[in-house]
Specification:
This protein has helices at residues 3-20, 24-37, 42-54, 58-71, 78-86, 89-103, 110-128, 137-151, 156-168, 172-184, 187-200, 205-208, 213-225, 229-242, 247-260, 268-284, 290-303, 308-322, 324-339. The chain is mostly helical. It has three domains: 1-72, Serine Threonine Protein Phosphatase 5, Tetratricopeptide repeat; 76-180, Alpha Horseshoe (Serine Threonine Protein Phosphatase 5, Tetratricopeptide repeat); 241-306, no CATH class.
């Protein structure tokens, strides 16, 4: 290996390490230097595409991925799957299929098996969205779901996709069975990690859950459609502990309690609280999802105004929490009770 090759490899490795540390500025600098030495290096192009996506430059990222594929078409399935996510319809399907072809030639270790399963999940999703008008959409969707589960029966996203398909078909019992199986694979462990991290005084989102954020959001929505409000609440509670600056989770908590309030009005106060909390979080950390914000207003309108007695109770609780003297009093009372 020549000196330039060693330098390029070192820069690429440094960039990968910087990305793992979320130091995108440093990673970008390393990749720019690597591409200056060789602007046709596929891995450097792929890593650069990732950074471009993080920066919202989707079109430019697609160019880098296409170039990486053209240079090294038979090696590296990841670039195919990333590009497929940036594409739609038949084009996306074809790119996923090529990525699967590359992937299936590799040794079937746990990482590759999960990647293969998730690729089939993405294909199944295409047949419920972009390709839903295809004459063979249902057949191909079932085939993709089966391939996903066969590839990795322990993949929660594969079983979640199965639940979604049954829900579309209004096969509610089958949907609940598949969703319960999916949640059993990750939700108890997720709650345990959140609880342990709380005790340790920190929550590391990278280590918290193997199921991606978007899939957890989708899981909550599926649970709501299946009226599994307990599971929806458990997922949202964990996500709030993980990061309380995301509008979506407060909104989904509020929506969950609003749906519960249709059978029990005692849940209305909780629903109002979480929906209003979503609006407060939006004011400091705005979401681009205006449709969601409109739905929050609609739900609050359906719930109606807070009764005066509930307002007073909430204010009393907030005042007690905000007053440090009450903390000391509570501690003393607790000690007295223990002594007695």
């Amino acid at each position: 290996m020549g000196r330039l090759d060693r330098t390029r490899t070192r820069l690429r490795n440094n960039a990968s390490e910087s990305i793992n540390r979320y130091d995108y500025f440093e990673a970008q600098g390393c990749l720019q230097k690597a591409l200056a030495i060789n602007n046709d290096h596929p891995k450097a192009l792929e890593l650069s595409a990732f950074l471009l996506l993080e920066g919202g430059e989707v079109e430019k990222a697609g160019e880098f991925l296409n170039k990486a594929i053209a240079i090294q078409p038979e090696v590296g399935y990841e670039k195919y799957f990333t590009l497929a996510q940036l594409s739609s319809g038949k084009e996306s399907l074809d790119i996923y299929s090529k990525g699967i072809d590359v992937l299936t030639r590799l040794k079937p270790d746990s990482e590759n098996i999960r990647a293969l399963s998730n690729a089939y999940v993405s294909i199944a999703e295409l047949y419920t969205t972009d390709l839903c008008d295809d004459p063979n959409a249902e057949k191909e969707c079932v085939k993709a779901i089966k391939s996903s589960v066969d590839a990795d029966g322990e993949n929660p996203e594969a079983l979640q996709m199965k639940a979604r398909f049954h829900l579309i078909k209004q096969e509610f019992d089958e949907a609940r069975t598949a969703m319960s199986a999916s949640l059993a694979l990750w939700l108890p462990a997720y709650e345990n990690v959140i609880s342990n991290n709380q005790e340790a005084g920190s929550v590391d989102p990278v280590e918290v859950c193997a199921v991606p954020y978007e899939s957890r959001i989708a899981a909550v929505k599926l649970c709501l459609e299946l009226e599994d409000f307990d599971s929806a609440t458990r997922i949202c509670d964990g996500m709030v502990e993980e990061d309380d600056t995301v509008v979506d989770t407060w909104y989904l908590l509020g929506w969950t309690y609003q749906l519960r309030s249709t059978n029990d009005e005692d849940y209305k106060s909780n629903a109002r609280y979480y929906l209003n909390k979503a609006k407060v979080v939006h004011s400091s950390n705005p979401t681009p999802d205006l449709q969601m914000m409109e739905h929050i207003d609609e739900l609050l309108s359906e719930l109606g105004p807070e009764p005066e007695e509930d307002k007073e109770e909430v204010n009393d609780v907030e005042s007690a929490i905000d007053n440090p003297e009450n903390w000391e009093t509570s501690d003393e009372e607790e000690e007295d009770q223990m002594d007695s």
